Amino acid sequence: MPSKPPVPPMPTFRPGQVEVRVERQLLWIGQAAYPLHNIARVFPVVLYPRSAEAFARFGRRVGITLVSAFLVVGVGQLSIATTSSRSTRSDTSSAFTQFVVSVAVVALILYVVELLRVVLQKPQHVVAIETNGSSVALITAADAERRRALTEYIAAAVDNPQSSLLLHVDTLAVNPANYYFGDTVNVHGTGNVGRIST
């Protein structure tokens, strides 16, 4: 039987890392504790930014903002034309239009910033630790070999709850709402979508 390739050693602790340890049948990731018997799956995965959804959301918001701005300007101009005197009508109309356009431009700038925060993100290579509930912990390491080693270390600890483990892993500063996280599966009850690959 061929022997397994050697697992690369984990680097020593660096500032900005968190401690992963197993003791007394608990997996600790920083300050969060997960019962080993409650861990359903440990696997490496690549999180891809939700760029298509971000562009679709941006398009909807731009369309709604422009249509709303045109409607507000049109209704406002009509209201000004019927209630203002001829001498103040032009100045009032111009000021109102500039105000609405300014608000629309500010909103569009915010939409562009939000779009860029998603589409400029890079894919994130992580090790995901899923529990029997809805929580998922994400940890990572500098390269694929170390991420594979993390997966093996944690899987071995789950398999042998009496074992102990001490590692230092890199932290992630990502908004999970901006990334696809594996496949979506719902085959029960209302909202049944089967399996959607992402």
Give a verbal description of the structure.
It is rod-shaped, with a radius of gyration of 27 Å. The protein is built from 3 helices and 10 strands, in the order ββββααββαββββ. It has one domain. Helices cover 42% and strands 26% of the residues. The strands form 3 sheets. Strands 3-2-1-7 form a 4-stranded antiparallel sheet, with helices on one face. A 4-stranded antiparallel sheet has the order 6-5-4-8, covered by helices on one side. It has a two-stranded antiparallel sheet with strand order 9-10. Helix 1 packs antiparallel against helix 2 (86-119). The chain is α+β, with helices and mostly antiparallel strands.
Question: What keywords describe this structure?
Answer:
disordered C terminus, 4-stranded antiparallel beta sheet, single chain, 198 residues, alpha+beta
Topology:
Elements: E1 17-23, E2 26-29, E3 32-35, E4 39-49, H1 51-83, H2 86-119, E5 124-131, E6 136-139, H3 144-159, E7 165-170, E8 179-180, E9 184-186, E10 194-196
Antiparallel strand pairs: 1-2, 1-7, 2-3, 4-5, 4-8, 5-6, 9-10
Give the H and E element order. EEEEHHEEHEEEE
What's the shape?
rod-shaped
Number of helices: 3
Number of domains: 1
Please state the average pLDDT score: 79
What ranges have pLDDT less than 50 throughout 5 or more consecutive residues?
184-189, 191-198
| Cα-based radius of gyration, to the nearest Å | 27 Å
Q: Determine the fraction of residues in helical runs and give it as a percent range.
A: 40-55%
